[in-house]
Write a structure and sequence with these properties.
Number of helices: 14
Order of helices and strands: HHHHHHHHHHHHHH
Radius of gyration: 20 Å
Distance between the termini: 13 Å
Helix content: over 70%
Largest sheet: none
Structural class: mainly alpha
Strand content: under 5%
Length: 404
């Protein structure tokens, strides 16, 4: 079992990511139901729940899937050598130990959290080193996507280090940089780059459409816009975010159109990638409107709360994470590229989860907090079938008898 689990980087990383997808939302659901008095009394955690939630989603859940995907694809993109098990197993061990230690620290001691974050930081560094070896050790070629991705991962590492600095000093400066770096210098560039690299490729293969356009200027526009958004957010100039958010939204929505969003709906496994990416355009459009209202009202009117952010993180990132994770799991386990009705319902369910969480902030609901709980339970209800179905695949041999 252990030999199979560590036979390929996606196996062990996705294994940890699948467990984290359940664990992070179990903890958050417990926090919500206790905070609002639905069950029991508010729990006193060693770190502010909002800061813990941000950390878990940005730095403890998504990176496990990201590194599993990139450690698998980097050698294929650049015709490089496969990453040796000693590197990806070491990276996973440190990151997963950090993930589990964080929960223990939330209950018992902030010092344990510091140790857990340091372990995650070390594991992230090991994974980054493994990817850099591939990037620098291959022949010259079109490496635009890999280069941007390693820069984004480096900024994610810096954001993680800043979170550790916040834990040690309690200075908001470090927490603020950790959040903005994680969201805008790390996550959006990674998902935009992977989507730009892979969605046209998958679309071309699935729909027998040889010439799926992939204009690079739209990708660069999204990357630059994301960096500008992060800088403006860091300095508190949220009323000017609409200037960059409109360009990101327009670029993402136009790419969705160019890539054949409507045609993709005929193929469920492809459709989930297109739907996930479409959420990026929708989310950034919501961000733009939210910021413009602040600008127009001279900072006196604020709307929608965290609705645009959750449209991006749940609608786009979680959906793309599921879509890419499912494709890699099937393709690299020797299984056919088809999904049954329960998994299709799970994909649809995640869209409802995103919509519920967005509407909970966007609409003036008197009992809005109930919908926070509903969306958290919806996440668990959607991810549980995926984990139940695919977790054993990671420790079973490939169905086609091949190695890996």
């Amino acid at each position: 079992m252990l030999k199979n689990l560590t036979a390929a980087p996606h196996r062990v990383m996705f294994f940890g990511g699948a467990l984290q997808a359940i664990a992070v939302m179990l903890w958050w659901t417990l926090e919500l139901v206790s905070r609002y008095g639905i069950i029991g009394q508010p729990i006193s955690w060693t770190v502010a729940p909002s800061a813990a939630h941000v950390y878990l989603m940005i730095y403890s859940l998504l990176p496990l899937f990201m590194f599993g995907f990139l450690m698998t694809t980097f050698p294929r993109w650049m015709a490089g050598k496969e990453i040796p098990p000693k590197l990806y197993v070491a990276a996973f061990g440190l990151m997963f130990l950090g993930a589990m230690g964080f929960y223990v620290g939330l209950i018992f001691s902030a010092a344990i959290i510091v140790t857990a974050v340091a372990s995650t930081l070390a594991g992230w560094g090991a994974a980054f080193y493994a990817l850099m070896r591939v990037l620098l050790g291959t022949r010259p070629s079109d490496k635009r996507h890999p280069i941007v991705l390693v820069i984004a991962l480096a900024m994610g590492w810096c954001g993680l280090a800043s979170y550790l600095s916040w834990l040690l000093t309690n200075r908001f400066f470090f927490l603020n940089f950790s959040i903005q770096s994680g969201l805008w210098f790390f996550l959006l560039p990674v998902f935009a780059s992977v989507a730009h690299r892979m969605i046209p490729f998958f679309t071309s293969n699935a729909l027998s459409q040889p010439d799926v356009p992939r204009p690079f200027w739209l990708w660069w526009t999204m990357l630059i816009g994301s960096v500008v958004h992060g800088v403006l957010s860091f300095v508190g100039a949220t009323n000017w975010l609409w200037l960059c958010d409109v360009s990101i939204a327009g670029s993402a929505l136009y790419l969705s159109y160019l890539w054949g969003f409507r045609r993709s709906l005929s193929n469920p496994l492809l459709a989930v990638l297109h739907v996930g990416f479409a959420w990026m355009g929708i989310a950034m459009l919501l961000h733009a409107v939210q910021s413009f209202v602040l600008f127009y009202s001279h900072g006196t009117t604020s709307i929608w709360g965290f609705a645009p952010l959750h449209a991006l993180t749940i609608g786009c990132y979680a959906t793309l994470m599921i879509g890419m994770g499912t494709r890699v799991t099937l393709g690299h386990s020797g299984l056919p590229f088809n999904i049954d009705i329960p998994i299709k319902l799970m994909f649809v369910g995640m869209q409802l989860v995103a919509l519920t969480r967005v509407l909970a902030d966007a609409l003036p609901l008197q009992s809005g907090y109930i919908w926070y709980v509903v969306s958290a339970l919806g996440w668990l209800g959607c991810f549980a079938p995926w984990v139940w179905r695919y977790l054993p695949v990671f420790w079973y041999p490939r169905a086609d008898g091949q190695a890996g």
